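Morning F.,

Quick status update on the modeling queue. The single chain you submitted on Monday has been processed. Sequence for confirmation:
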Amino acid sequence: MESWKTLARTAAQDTHSRFGQRLLGLPGTWIGLPYSNAHQLRDGSMLSDLNGISHPLREWNYWWQAHYLDAIIDDGYAYLADNDLDAAHRELQRAVELLRGIRLRNFGVFPNYFFDDMAWLALASQRLLSFSRRLDGHSSANAKQAVTTLRKQLNGAIDDVLDGGMYWSRKKDFKNAPANAPAALFFARNGERDQSRKLLSWLRARLFSIDSGLYLDGLRLVPDGHRIEDALYTYNQGPVLGALLELGSDADLEHSTMLIHASAQYLTDSTGALSLNGGGDGNLFAGILVRYLALAANDVRLDGRTRSTARTMVVATANSLVDQEPRRLSAAVQRWMIFSAAAACESDSRN
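Structure tokens below.
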């Protein structure tokens, strides 16, 4: 089998060629199409969306684009590590154009209806800002504005109802892990450690399951109080893990260890691969957890058994996707993210 690095770069090019294009043909923009354009599969058949045409104005999946942006930045850093500066600059330009495309497609602004969507784009924009500074020595103005604007939105979604926490949407009837976890990671990376800790503490107090050692989905406000949504999703564990590693106290690392082993126990199949939630948004769930498991696998502050467990989940999940040809942008980005994570684990294991 080809190396994970090679598979990741092939998946990246496949995603760009089948799902990416200029937004309405506008120079200096890029956007991901929800479905693949017509494309020949290995068996000679043609792949297209249900109506034979894919268009960026027909369906809008804001948070898919945020993860597309994150995956591009992964590639940029990988090329930089290889000292391929031309390729790194190419990915920086693509990332800048995608963020511009996201803003234009979102009616010229960064905020939208869902706070979890905004948290994901805030995280990706934060990484783009750091990458542009490292590669070019100056900040991407659009990324800087995105971080500033979205940070304000996220802060405004937190109140004292249900003892704290962030709402999922502007309807303000649901506080959940999909919003609070990535926001906690964003604030941690932004140097706002107290705000990050408040969100993590709320998650631990209200949504952590002692039985499984994992985080439940959320609390829904109802006329007589609230109702817990107790589904276990892979992606809810990922940004919690990322925030714990970012804050990095002894207690955070201990909780990270527990979360990794709980994920291995309850969220994997007999091969050790994370369960894949097929279709639409679910196509991203395992990829999000894998992104942060790869960070854990390479984190020398964690013990060897825990790092090995994280690495095993990453590689086993990657192995389960080798022969897939994704039909939707979400699945294509997830496959690419997971191959990139496996490549990061592969690189670390050789050092």
